[in-house]
Each structure stands twice: as structure tokens, then as C-alpha cells.
């Protein structure tokens, strides 16, 4: 149990130590929350954003948290003299009822690629059931960005599954490994083309899935090992938060989606990718089409298709879970 508690505290330590993240949300909440407002903070964690809402003058804040970290949040509310204005609520937002409509909904449930922690359904449901007609949502919208990535180190790591270990064949896991998404730190030097916008999402709209497409012109020769992805969130007008490499927000890395095999590319080649997210953001598909710039090239027009549904058997169960 002590190790679990230490991991929880260490994770939340990384969040509060991220001054870029905290400052951006602080500025946005001070702009969006008005004196006397009623606020809902979904996934409050340590309660930091709920306490920012109190600083902005909120009369009541409903701080929702289903994890053990909520115990610490309650202590922090008392320590900072705001426990009389913040009501800690346990559970998932889809399973709770509020006694009143709120003026502002806040939720910092952004994964490394933006989507991945259920923010689409969470904010869509919250807008429909909890938000006043003229209410505000933080963050309001988000773009997802993507680029082809060369990472020899990540390829070596994944290829470990394709080797024998003291005579034991582990290769059945190699295909699974190539059909999963990973968190990793990307540097600009790893990108073989200019990043492109995959899609723009209006958070709070009634969306269950995302599908986007991007096209790239390869700028230098190399080997594409996968796609890198990150987000750019508009918390409110003139306040943005992103984790584009090199990330100014260290509590987020970036997402990495491998190709089934390394793809040799030359300057002037074109890549087209289509990425789909579904199942409360628990299942992903990504395809890459390679179009060489010259005629007679090998793999002309070849398509690489991956899906987390092939990454682990329980992925299908997560996709269909209520």
C-alpha cells in the first residue's frame, strides 16, 4: 500500500511542479470565473484548480474526484481556508447529480495526445447536464497535432520482443507492442517533417469519437519509426497550453504510435496519416500511406495500418464497456 500511495503523491507532485501548466490554468480560471459563480471541477486531484476558482471569487465549487488523492484535497481545502466553499464529491462525473446548474466547468483531463482520458464524453455530458446555457468550459477547445518520427532508441526497445531470451521465443508480443501507443519525450530533431494539425475539437460538444487526417512532406532523409502526437489547448481566449516538443509543460510527454516496421524515406516523399479515436478514448487506429517522390521506388503507395485493438486482448472489452 505504501508504494501505491507514494506513486500517487509523486504523480501529483509532477503536476504541481509544472509551473507552465499551473500558471496557464490559474490565468484562465481567473478570467473565466466571476465573483459569485458556481463551479464544477471534474477530476480535481489535489484540488488546486478548485482553489484557483475560489481565488477568482466562486461562491461554491463542486470538486469531483474518484481517486484516493481526494483525501489530500480535503485537507488542503481546510488548510487554505476554503473548505466552506468547496464540496468534495466522490465518483465519476457521469454517475453524479448536482443540486444546481453551474456557471463554469473545469476539467484538466488532458492526456499526452490531448484525448486519452475521456475528456470528450466527460465535457459533453457535463455541458448537457450541469452547465447553465451561458456557462463557460475550461478548456474550451483543443487541436491535436502530429508528425512522423525517427526514434532508433524506441525501435530498439520494441524490438526486444522480437528476440529470444535464453532460448525462449517472445516474438508473439512483438505485434502487440507495435499496436500500442506510448508516452515518450520527443525532440524537434526526431521529426522528419513539419508538424501538421490533425483536427480541432470544440470541447463540450456531443462527440463520442475523433477522426482526423494529416499530410506531410518529408524534409530530410531518414527512417520513420512511427507518429508523434501532442495537443494545443485553448483554456480561454488568449490563454493556451501545449506540450509540443520541446514541451514547455514537463508534466506531459508526447504520444508515440509505432509503424509495424521501419520505413525508409527520402526528402520530397509524402506521407498521409489518418488517426481515429473511439471507445471513450480507450481505442485508437492509425494508418500511414507512403508515396515516394520518384518513380519506380519500392513500397510506392504502401499503407501501414495499426490499432490498439490488436495491442492487447482487453482493448476490445474497454471499447465496449458502458
Characterize the structure shown.
It is a single chain. The protein is an alpha+beta fold. The chain has helices spanning 2-16, 19-32, 48-55, 69-79, 119-129, 152-159, 172-178, 314-320, and strands spanning 38-42, 60-64, 86-89, 102-107, 131-138, 141-149, 164-165, 168-169, 182-184, 196-202, 210-217, 222-236, 239-242, 254-265, 270-278, 283-291, 303-307. The protein folds into 2 domains: 2-108, Vaccinia Virus protein VP39 (Rossmann fold, 3-Layer(aba) Sandwich); 142-320, Distorted Sandwich (Hnrnp arginine n-methyltransferase1). The protein has 8 helices and 17 strands. Strands 6, 9, 10, 12, 13 and 14 form a 6-stranded antiparallel beta sheet that branches. The chain has a 5-stranded parallel beta sheet with strand order 3-2-1-4-5, sandwiched between helices. The two termini are 29 Å apart.
Task: Tell me briefly what this model is.
The protein has 322 residues and is α+β, with helices and mostly antiparallel strands.
